[in-house]
Specification:
heterodimer; A: 78 residues; alpha+beta; 2 helices; 28% helix; 26% strand; B: 134 residues; four-stranded mixed sheet
C-alpha cells in the first residue's frame, strides 16, 4: 500500500529537480495521478518521459500500485 | 519448457505488432473491456473511427509478461502504430485531446469536445490468441 507522499517523494528523489503533484484519485490508496514537471523531460518523447517514471516504480505498477496515471511536462510547458 | 514457450509467444506477439498497422493490447475485448483504462483506450479508438486489431491479454498471464518484455512498458493497455509503441491510456488520452493521435492514425479529429463514448467497434480481426500452450 502506497500513499501520496511516498509516491511524490520517490519520484522527486528518482528525478532530482522534478516536482511531482500526486493525488489519490479514488481515495483508496490504490489509484494515483501524478503530474510530473522536470527539466530532464526536454527533448524526450512522451514514451521516453513516462519510462523514466515507470523505472522508478519498476515491478510495482499494475501490482502493489494498482494504477498510477502519469502526466509529464517540462517546466516550460507547465 | 518455459524458455522455448516464452520465445514462441514473444515471436508471435512481435509478429502481430509487425503485421497490424494499428493494434491495441487490452484487458478484455473492445465489446467488453475488463478494466477502466482499457475501456478508455477503446473509447478513444472508437471516437477516432480508425480500424484496429485488438488482443485480449487476460487469457494467459504470459501474454502480458512477453508483451512487457517487448515494449518495456509495464501496464495495459498498449497501443502500437506501425510497429511502434504509442502509449498506454494516459498518453492516448493526452494525444487524443491535443489532436496528435488523429494525426498518428491518419484520421480526422472528430469535431466538438464530446468525450469519446464506448460503443461497439470494428472486428478484432481474428486475433484472439489461443491458449494452447499448456
Amino acid at each position: 500500500m502506497a500513499d501520496v507522499n511516498e509516491i511524490k517523494q520517490r519520484i522527486e528523489a528518482g528525478l532530482p529537480g522534478a516536482v511531482a503533484d500526486v493525488e489519490d484519485t479514488a481515495g483508496d490508496s490504490n489509484h494515483f495521478r501524478a503530474v510530473v514537471t522536470a527539466p530532464q523531460f526536454a527533448g524526450l518523447t512522451r514514451i521516453q518521459q513516462h519510462k523514466i517514471i515507470n523505472e522508478i516504480f519498476k515491478g510495482e505498477l499494475g501490482g502493489s500500485i494498482h494504477a498510477l496515471s502519469i502526466k509529464t511536462q517540462t517546466p516550460e510547458q507547465s | 519448457m518455459s524458455d522455448q514457450v516464452s520465445n514462441e509467444l514473444r515471436e508471435h506477439l512481435a509478429k502481430l505488432i509487425d503485421e497490424n498497422e494499428v493494434i491495441l493490447f487490452m484487458k478484455g475485448t473492445p465489446e467488453g473491456p475488463a478494466c477502466g483504462f482499457s475501456a478508455r483506450a477503446v473509447a478513444v479508438m472508437n471516437s477516432l473511427g480508425r480500424k484496429y486489431a485488438a488482443v485480449d491479454i487476460l487469457p494467459d498471464p504470459r501474454i502480458r509478461e512477453e508483451l512487457t518484455a517487448i515494449s518495456d512498458w509495464p501496464t495495459i493497455p498498449q497501443l502500437f502504430v506501425d510497429g511502434e509503441l504509442v502509449g498506454g491510456s494516459d498518453i492516448m488520452m493526452e494525444m487524443y485531446e491535443s489532436g496528435e493521435l488523429a494525426g498518428v492514425l491518419g484520421v480526422e479529429q472528430p469535431a466538438g469536445e464530446a468525450e469519446p463514448e464506448p460503443e461497439p467497434t470494428p472486428q478484432p480481426q481474428g486475433l484472439q490468441l489461443e491458449n494452447n500452450l499448456e
